[in-house]
């Protein structure tokens, strides 16, 4: 028997892409294996009488057992469950452009979730078309950025498809969801314990939100850190690593050439060991709310530190002043769910152009939470002592010309100073 208090689908919609109840016959569900999407898998079949096709995307989330997730989806009545290994595409097409743009939102968030959502949603569109679904379902709440990123992507790439976001409407909390599972024989892992943090992770980082993290007056509970060793527990001996870049792309560690996915996995491991990449961040969400996140981003911290340093060495002062403005615009678009906005393509062209020069190596020392640059080398460094004439051997630089430069460089400031002092007399 159906419980009388089971929430039912919303019966009116306000946008072009939301599904009305009668639109929904075959659903592509973005499935993680967690509580929300497991309840959804059952609830969609029950409430819409629809077939559900589950899709689970591997973006390199550590310690995930995809076979278990697939089995769970099939047990819950999915017509099919596809696990897509999108690690290579994610690394090359999403993370690499972010590296070239030194992408950090709000000065601290390397955007791993924000970069993953448009790819996950794009794959949802591909699989919805493959299975001839009419609707895509996801498990985002109505409070976060992820709903924006996923729905903006679906509405952009597939105007013929509709979206449902049951968690946003059904107003079941964790307790009610667990009760729903109990009534419908859905297995719940750790159901009696306190609600877990809200976690999202992939090869570029991991976030934790909610629970004790919401208390701004409290330092993060040590149980938040499931990835990075806390710096105070990290080894007493520092470790040096050398990252090699080719045209902005990290290509080697200590001289060993590696594919991007493997390189990021290795940097995650070594960064975790040394406590590198813990970020306690207050963030302005697109939907207006502020949120506190604890990020564990070892690979991103190491790569972005090294990339930024090498870029600074090969660029002119004018480029170094200008690029951060475009970098932050790039990060904002990625954060704000506008991945498919043409401006990002425009910005990428600029990033590509600058990054042509970003070749060389950066050595870092990892020690108790810090990743510090200690050596730099590049054939493109705008740092040629002979060329600039430091050796007085007739290079491009003449020390005797400096006074003339200073006379002109300071001219307007000196004039203004005199005018103002005259007025003040
Ligand atoms: N605040 C970050 C962002 O908006 C992380 C969100 C993590 N998502 C989650 N479902 N826990 O990108």
CATH superfamily of the largest domain: HUPs
Straight-line distance between termini: 92 Å
Q: What spatial form do the alpha-carbon principal axes imply?
A: elongated
Roughly what percent helix? 40-55%
Rounded to the nearest angstrom, the radius of gyration is: 26 Å
Please write out the topology.
Blueprint: E1 26-30, H1 35-48, E2 51-58, H2 66-75, E3 80-85, H3 87-100, H4 112-130, E4 135-137, H5 146-157, E5 162-164, H6 166-170, H7 174-184, E6 198-202, E7 205-209, E8 239-246, E9 249-253, E10 256-257, H8 260-273, E11 278-284, E12 290-296, H9 298-314, H10 317-335, H11 342-355, E13 360-367, E14 370-377, H12 385-388, H13 402-409, H14 411-424
Bound molecules: arginine.
Describe, in plain words, how this protein is organized in 3D:
- Helix 1 (35-48) packs across helix 7 (174-184), helix 8 (260-273) packs across helix 9 (298-314) and helix 10 (317-335) packs antiparallel against helix 11.
- This protein has helices at residues 35-48, 66-75, 87-100, 112-130, 146-157, 166-170, 174-184, 260-273, 298-314, 317-335, 342-355, 385-388, 402-409, 411-424; strands spanning 26-30, 51-58, 80-85, 135-137, 162-164, 198-202, 205-209, 239-246, 249-253, 256-257, 278-284, 290-296, 360-367, 370-377.
- It folds into 3 domains: 3-195, 3-Layer(aba) Sandwich (Rossmann fold); 199-315 and 357-377, Argininosuccinate synthetase, chain A, domain 2; 388-423, no CATH class.
- Strands 3-2-1-4-5 form a 5-stranded parallel β-sheet, sandwiched between helices. The protein has a 5-stranded antiparallel β-sheet with strand order 10-9-8-13-14.
- It is α/β, with parallel strands linked by helices.
- 38% of the residues are buried.
- The protein is elongated, with a radius of gyration of 26 Å.
- Arginine binds at residues 113-114, 145-146, 198, 200, 207, 209, 283, 291, 293.
């Amino acid at each position: 028997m159906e419980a009388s208090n089971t929430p039912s689908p919303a019966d009116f919609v306000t946008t072009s892409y939301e599904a009305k109840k009668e639109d929904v016959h075959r659903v592509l569900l973005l499935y993680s294996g967690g509580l929300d999407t497991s309840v959804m898998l059952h609830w969609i079949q029950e409430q819409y009488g629809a077939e559900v096709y589950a899709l689970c995307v591997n973006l390199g989330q550590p310690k995930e057992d995809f076979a278990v997730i697939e089995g769970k989806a099939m047990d819950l009545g999915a017509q099919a469950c596809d696990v897509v290994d999108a690690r290579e595409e994610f690394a090359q097409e999403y993370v690499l452009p972010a590296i070239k743009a030194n992408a950090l939102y709000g000065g601290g968030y390397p955007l791993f979730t924000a970069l993953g959502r448009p790819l996950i949603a794009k794959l949802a569109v591909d699989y919805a078309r493959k299975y001839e679904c009419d609707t895509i379902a996801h498990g985002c709440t109505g409070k976060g950025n992820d709903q924006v990123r996923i729905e903006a992507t679906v509405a952009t790439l597939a105007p013929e498809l509709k979206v449902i976001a049951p968690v946003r409407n059904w107003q079941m909390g964790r307790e009610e969801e667990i009760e729903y599972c109990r009534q419908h024989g859905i297995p719940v892992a750790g159901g009696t314990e306190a609600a877990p943090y809200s976690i999202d992770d992939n090869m570029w980082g991991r976030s934790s939100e909610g629970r004790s993290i919401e208390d701004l007056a409290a330092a993060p509970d040590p149980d938040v850190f499931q990835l990075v060793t806390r710096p105070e527990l990290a080894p007493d001996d520092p470790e040096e690593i050398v990252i090699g870049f080719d045209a902005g792309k990290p290509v080697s560690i200590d001289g060993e050439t590696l594919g991007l996915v493997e390189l990021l996995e290795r940097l995650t491991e070594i960064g975790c060991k040394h406590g590198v990449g813990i970020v306690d961040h207050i963030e302005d969400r697109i939907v207006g709310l502020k949120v506190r996140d604890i990020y564990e981003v070892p690979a991103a911290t190491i790569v972005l530190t090294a990339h930024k340093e090498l870029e600074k060495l090969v660029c002119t002062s004018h480029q170094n002043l200008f690029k951060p403005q475009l970098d932050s615009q790039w990060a904002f678009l990625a954060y704000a769910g506008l991945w498919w906005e043409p401006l990002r393509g425009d910005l990428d062209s600029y990033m590509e152009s600058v990054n042509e020069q970003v070749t060389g190596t950066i050595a870092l020392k990892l020690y108790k939470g810090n990743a510090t640059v200690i050596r730099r080398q590049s054939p493109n460094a705008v740092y040629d002592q002979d060329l600039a004439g430091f050796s007085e051997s007739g290079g491009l630089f003449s020390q005797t010309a400096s006074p003339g430069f200073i006379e002109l460089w300071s001219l307007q400031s000196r004039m203004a100073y005199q005018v103002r002092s005259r007025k003040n007399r």
